[in-house]
């Protein structure tokens, strides 16, 4: 997929729930939205957990990352878009710390891996259709 379209769908967080099934009730704090940007704060439900999130890394068409917090832990999620001759390679990775991630490590690791596989596949599908309107 075209990296510009991948980026456009990735930062259009207000529309994630339309194509990513693990995103529910996303709200922006302040006057932000519908797109993410450096410093933007948003909250959302993912995998049954409410997460308060802030965008901490922002390199257009290359890298996006945010830190999230729940009552039981924290996480850091990054996306890297690497241009290729016929599209791009998308890499996403997440790390978590805290009581809940420690206790439920085996479950969380599998759930996140499956969710991220879906997110990547759907992101590519959306990007191949063009950018969001």
Give your account of this protein's structure.
The chain is α+β, with helices and mostly antiparallel strands. The model has no long low-confidence stretch (mean pLDDT 95). The chain is 32% helix and 40% strand. A hairpin with a 3-residue loop joins strand 3 and strand 4. The chain contains four helices and six strands. The chain has a six-stranded antiparallel sheet with strand order 1-2-3-4-5-6. Helix 1 crosses helix 4. It starts with a helix and ends in a 5-residue tail after the last helix.
Total strands: 6
Biggest sheet, spatial arrangement of strands: 1-2-3-4-5-6
Spans where pLDDT lies below 50 across 5 or more residues? none
Rounded average pLDDT: 95
How can the largest sheet be summarized? Answer: 6 strands, antiparallel
Determine Rg (CA atoms, Å): 14 Å
Order of helices and strands: HHEEEEEEHH
Total number of helices: 4
Helix content: 25-40%
Note the overall shape.
globular
How far the N terminus sits from the C terminus, by CA atoms, comes to 17 Å
Question: Helix/strand-derived class?
Answer: alpha+beta
Instruction: Give the strand content.
Output: 35-45%
Key structural traits:
133 residues, 4 helices, single chain, globular, alpha+beta, 32% helix
Question: What does this entry show, briefly?
Answer:
Helix 1 (3-11) packs across helix 4 (105-128). Strands 1-2-3-4-5-6 form a six-stranded antiparallel beta sheet.
Architecture blueprint of SSEs:
Blueprint: H1 3-11, H2 16-19, E1 24-28, E2 41-46, E3 49-59, E4 63-70, E5 73-84, E6 87-97, H3 99-103, H4 105-128
Antiparallel strand pairs: 1-2, 2-3, 3-4, 4-5, 5-6
Helix pairs in contact: 1-4
